[in-house]
Amino acid sequence: MRDHPPPSLLVLTKAKPGRDDNSEQQRVSYKNSSTILALLVLAVVAAHAARADVNKGAQIARQWCANCHVIGDSNASAVPQGPPSFRTIARSGMTADQLRAFLSHPHGAMPDLSLTRVEIDDLIGYIGTLR
Fold first, then answer.
1. Looking at the whole model, is its pTM more than 0.90?
2. Rounded (10°) CA dihedral 88, 89, 92, 98
3. Per-residue confidence at 76, pLDDT binned at 50, 70, 90?
4. CATH label, 52-128, candidates 3.20.20.80, 1.10.760.10, 3.40.50.150, 1.10.10.60
5. Where are the domains of the chain?
6. Residue-wise DSSP of 72-122
7. CA–CA dist 13, 5 (Å, integer)
8. Are 88 and 76 in contact (CB under 8 A)?
């Protein structure tokens, strides 16, 4: 039999008072726990972003955004002033998180559309296709 539990079980191991080798196991177990938690959070965020429905995002853009923005493959130079085209936004270097924050809170002349998180993710997915 083994003297120590396998690394995957260290998360469940508690240190026994007065023993230095167990306190080391406890430190390792906390480190493993935080690593596992961080990986789970990343997996959930990545899975949520991967589920963005680009077609629904395009529909939202046509319905709510096309009155002010040039969307799709249209020539952005046809609108010399005003809000940026979706292609310009897509190529601006803004991250998905920055776009999400912007779309979650109205700015300036932009109307408060009160989009849901899923709609925002769909819209961001659509904008991402225009890069």
1. no
2. 180
3. low
4. 1.10.760.10
5. 7-49, 52-128
6. TTS-GGGS-SSSPPHHHHHTTT--HHHHHHHHHS--TTS------HHHHHH
7. 8
8. yes
Q: Which residue has the tokens 């629904």?
A: 56
Chain CA centroid to CA 11, Å: 28
Encoding tokens for residue 29? Answer: 């177990």
Banded pLDDT at 20 (limits 50, 70, 90): low
Task: Read off the tokens for 69.
Answer: 């923005």
Residue listed under structure tokens 């039999």: 1
Q: What are phi and psi of 129, to 5 degrees?
A: -75, -10
The token pair that represents 54 in the structure block: 């680009």
Q: How high is the pLDDT of residue 9? A: 44
Residue 10 is predicted with a pLDDT of 44
Nearest alpha-carbon partner for 28 in 48, 39, 13: 13
